[in-house]
Specification:
It is built from 8 helices and 8 strands. The longest helix is centred in the middle third of the chain and has 31 residues. Helix 6 runs antiparallel to helix 7. With about 260 residues, it is of the alpha+beta class. The chain is globular. Helices cover about 40% and strands about 15% of the residues.
Length: about 260
C-alpha cells in the first residue's frame, strides 16, 4: 500500500487570537438588537417617503377643472358683447377651439337661413327708425317747436333714442356674417359655441353677438322656450333656441328646469 500523506493540522481547537479589538468584535457572534415597530415606522416615514412637492401656481391653476371654475356663481347677471369681459373660465368654455368639460351640458343652436333673414330685417328696421329719430332730434334742437327754458333745456331724447336704435341696428347687421360662418361650420360638421350652456350654478347663453350669464338665484321661470330672470331687480327674458343640433328644444328646456330645481350652492 502506498504511503498516505500526513493529515492536515486542525485549527478548530486552537482559534487564532485577534490582536485588534475591532477585529475581535467583528469576529465575535453577531448581536441583533430587538426591533421596535414604532421606531421602524418612524424611520421609514422619515427616510423612504420624500416630502410632497408643492406645485407652482401656474401648474395649480392649469390643474383646476374648467367645470369647477365655471360653476363658481357670479353676483348678478352679466350681459356683454365684449369677449374680454367674460370670466376666464367662461371665455375658455365659449371658445370653439376648446373642449367642453364633463358636467357641462351644451345645446348648440342650429343656424338657419331664416335666422339671417330675420336679423337683416331687424337691422334694416332699427336703422331706419334710428335715422328718422336722429333727423327729427337734430331739427328739434336747432329749431325747437316750443319755447326752450333754462329749466327744461333742449329736447335731446329723440336724438339719444335714434343713436340707440342705430347701435342696435349695427349689432344686428354685424351678426349676419357671423351667422353665415357658423352655418357653414355646422354644415361641415364642426361645432360652434352658439347656444345654451348649463353648468353647476351658471346658465350661459352665447349668441352671434353677445353673451348672457345667469346665476341660479336670478332665475325666475321658464315657459315653453321663454326663460325669465331678473337683472338688478328688473324682469328680463330670453328665448331658447328653436332648433338644436343633435337634440330638441324640449331637451334644452328640460335641462334648464332641472338646473333651476337644484339647491343654490
Amino acid at each position: 500500500m502506498a504511503d498516505m500523506p500526513p493529515p492536515l493540522p486542525s485549527f478548530a481547537a486552537t482559534p487564532l487570537e485577534p490582536v485588534d479589538p475591532l477585529i475581535a468584535a467583528l469576529a465575535g457572534p453577531a448581536v441583533v438588537a430587538p426591533i421596535d415597530p414604532a421606531a421602524t415606522d418612524d424611520r421609514a416615514d422619515s427616510v423612504v417617503a420624500p416630502p410632497p412637492l408643492r406645485p407652482s401656481s401656474a401648474v395649480a391653476v392649469s390643474a383646476e377643472s374648467a367645470a369647477d371654475a365655471v360653476a363658481m356663481p357670479i353676483d348678478d347677471v352679466l350681459i356683454t358683447i365684449d369677449h374680454d369681459k367674460l370670466p376666464p373660465a367662461v371665455a375658455a368654455l365659449v371658445d370653439p377651439l376648446g373642449q367642453i368639460p364633463p358636467g357641462v351640458q351644451f345645446f348648440e343652436k342650429r343656424i338657419t337661413p331664416r335666422d339671417m333673414v330675420v336679423a337683416g330685417l331687424w337691422a334694416a328696421g332699427l336703422g331706419f327708425l334710428g335715422l328718422i329719430c336722429i333727423v327729427f332730434g337734430a331739427i328739434e334742437i336747432i329749431h325747437p317747436t316750443g319755447p326752450v327754458t333754462v329749466s327744461s333745456g333742449a329736447n335731446w331724447w329723440p336724438l339719444a333714442f335714434g343713436f340707440t336704435c342705430g347701435i342696435a341696428a349695427w349689432v344686428m347687421g354685424a351678426s349676419i356674417p357671423t351667422q353665415f360662418r357658423a352655418r357653414a361650420a355646422q354644415l361641415a360638421g364642426q361645432q360652434t359655441r352658439i347656444g345654451i350652456f348649463v353648468t353647476d350654478n351658471l346658465l350661459i347663453e352665447g349668441t352671434e353677438s353677445a353673451f348672457t350669464l345667469i346665476p341660479r338665484p336670478a332665475f325666475v321661470s321658464i315657459e315653453g322656450r321663454t326663460l325669465r330672470y331678473t337683472l338688478k331687480g328688473q324682469p328680463k327674458s330670453l328665448r331658447l333656441p328653436g332648433e338644436i343640433v343633435g337634440n330638441t328644444p324640449e331637451a334644452a328646456a328640460h335641462a334648464v328646469m332641472q338646473w333651476a330645481s337644484l339647491p343654490v350652492a
